[in-house]
């Protein structure tokens, strides 16, 4: 780990020197550091300030500052509304749901800040994967666009349909009554901005995390298939040294991912968990009220999006240790076959120790461990906390 930290520090120092020598000049072909084309996800990373190259364009720095400031103000406004709800005579359940939802928005903004703080390491990680074309697949581009926007647009449409009922009542902001149409316009603008934070921005972080984890899993799987197809005679000492070198590169890459996404993945997991229990709680309360179909559909979509995001994270990031275990088993069998072909008797443990393979278990702040066997436990935990939330209204 110390060697990895030293390597990251030296790389970071090299990148810093290179940036200073470039005098923050804009490079129109910045994307060549991360791939052959300027892909959709790569462009979003660039515009949201999550790459080292994002700071080289003065226009991009202004866009990021304005965008981040607007969303920070919107979240602050939402929190202010929650504080004002303390004085109003609303139901205890509605207040708790609004309060928990505000936590998810705050955590999303903090995750954004944390990713921006780690943008150098994230850029280094993407640079290491540039030859593997992590973003270049057309299938990945289509799935990314649909996952990134479709749920948010559907949720936004349902929310707009539901908010038409507001026209029947006077609108108040910070305790003051305002013009109905001005109020509706402000509500729509705030809704769009809040939708960017949750679920759109949260979905983007999940998508980026899962794409990188899935790509590393694919590299491990290809390495395992390559070993399986080789004969025992081809499995020489030089071949084993090459496997060990390849595993060391993958291990460094996984540790970079852990370094970048440890805090953001934990924050996003907590935000999604909060959305899950509030959405499921509202579904239980609204069960049978068919006249509020738009609200029920909106809440159901929130739950599906949040629970689906958690499951995708656990399944994709949890695929790394699964693939590693398969790789270890393949290595053990191949070493055993080689010993048998050479008429050697003995255990393969000594040979396996020379080919050390890490477990590759990712975590969020060493609190949330992303493993596939945690999915059922997650579902049970969500159900338990939802019942506690609803039963104590």
From TrEMBL:
Keywords linked to the UniProt accession: Membrane, Transmembrane, Transmembrane helix
Statement: the UniProt record of this protein carries the keyword Membrane: yes
Regions crossing the membrane: 62-87, 93-113, 140-158, 178-197, 204-222, 266-286, 298-318, 369-390
Record-given protein name: Gustatory receptor
